[in-house]
Specification:
six-stranded parallel β-sheet
Length: 385
């Protein structure tokens, strides 16, 4: 078996703040808020804010199904191109988010950016072509784990990913698990930069809920998040703690939300799209749970830790790199509800320990947004140099 290369894998944080004053960075993402609110969208928003705070000029090129538009949204210059219909491509199992790429490329050409930073492989194709034409550096931050099953799920996915990696100056993975996936399945040496969380916004405050409360910020409509498994496990938790509550992110479809709320006693759906609402949910919860598979990192786990809340996650991939000590949470194995229920009950006990909040907060600071921004600023300078 090939050995994973270790030299140069992680971009080390510089000792002093890297100067990025006047640096123009164009982020490229196929979708953005409010259409989609996943980890990738939070990553772009957080990194752009950190760069702007340091004097850089970030902007975002994205797409939607409406008319083209441009404006400042929450401090970020956002260009929204029209996304042509892709239903036929999806039905034939082609890679997602292909139709907007030519328009993103044109938007790049019309700008005066120093760096093009894509967060999806198809957008990285536009960034790579821009680099070939202008000589400006580009990079791809890959938001998942490029394993065999994922790469084979869509037509052209593996080929497009390899083309994107070959055409950009660097590919960045979010965890050791993702770095290993790139080397094992694609033979690509990726850099490691963990995504960051704003530990000043996500911070302890207020009082815990009087009853043991679990919050899960994952999208219940996404099968790999395994929210249904969490609901099954919660039913077993209620046999031991009848007053326990489970807060799930409310689906936009009212019928889906109603179906979730009927899934069991003590279960509620809440709107967690708003950052303040999400922070408040973490603060009142005793435990934050993420029973997903295939997570490259698990940003919602770090957000909860920053609020002093212990976490429960699946013992796979990037999540076990976050929950690396018993003081901050529990990991569970398998796909049965019993181990997950046991982990949740143990985490309840952990939440009652007054030392837990301090340990969780300390662990979250290892993944601060400032640390992430510094590493990307260093990488930009390296690529420009």
């Amino acid at each position: 078996m090939a050995t994973i290369p270790t030299s140069g894998r992680e971009t080390a944080p510089p000792s002093d703040r890297v100067g990025v004053e006047g640096l123009r960075v164009a982020f490229l993402s196929p979708v953005f808020w409010p259409e989609v609110r996943r980890g990738a969208e939070r990553f772009v928003h957080q990194l752009a804010a950190g760069l702007a705070e340091r004097g850089a000029s970030p902007r975002l090129i994205t797409s939607h199904r409406g008319w083209p538009s441009r404006g400042v949204e929450d401090g970020l210059d956002v260009t929204r191109n029209w996304r042509p219909p892709d239903g036929r491509l999806r039905r034939r199992c082609f890679e997602d988010y292909l139709t907007h790429v030519p328009l993103s490329y044109l938007s790049l050409l019309r700008g005066e950016d120093h760096v093009a930073h894509a967060v999806y492989p198809t957008d990285a194709l536009a960034a790579a072509r821009w680099s070939a034409r202008t000589g400006g550096p580009s990079l791809l931050s890959y938001m998942g784990i490029p394993d065999r099953r994922w790469l084979a799920r869509r037509r052209l996915r593996a080929d497009l990913t390899l083309r994107a990696v070959a055409g950009t100056g660097a590919v960045v993975a979010l965890s050791e698990a993702a770095v290993e996936g790139f080397w094992r399945w694609l033979g690509v040496e990726a850099r490691l930069i963990h995504p960051g969380v704003d530990v000043s916004s996500f911070a302890p405050g207020g009082q815990r809920a009087p009853a043991p409360t679990i919050v899960c910020a994952a999208d219940a409509a996404e099968p790999r998040k395994r929210v249904a498994l969490l609901v099954e496990a919660f039913a077993r938790v209620r046999r031991v703690r009848p007053d326990a509550r489970l807060l799930l992110s409310r689906p936009r479809d009212p019928a889906s939300a109603a179906a979730l709320e009927r899934a069991g006693d003590g279960l509620e759906t809440v709107d967690l799209d708003d950052r303040v609402a999400l922070r408040d949910a973490y603060r009142q919860a005793w435990v934050s749970a993420l029973p997903s598979l295939g997570e490259a990192f698990g940003l919602v786990l770090v957000e909860a830790l920053a609020c002093g809340t212990p976490v429960v996650a699946t013992n796979v991939d990037g999540m076990r790199e976050i929950v690396d000590r018993a003081e901050v949470g529990r990991l569970f194995d398998g796909d049965q509800p019993e181990p997950l229920a046991d982990a949740l009950l143990e985490a309840f006990e952990l939440a009652e320990d007054p030392n837990t909040a301090v340990a969780c907060r300390a662990r979250a600071k290892d993944f601060s947004s400032d640390r992430c921004t510094e590493r990307y600023a260093s990488l930009y300078r390296e690529l420009l140099g």
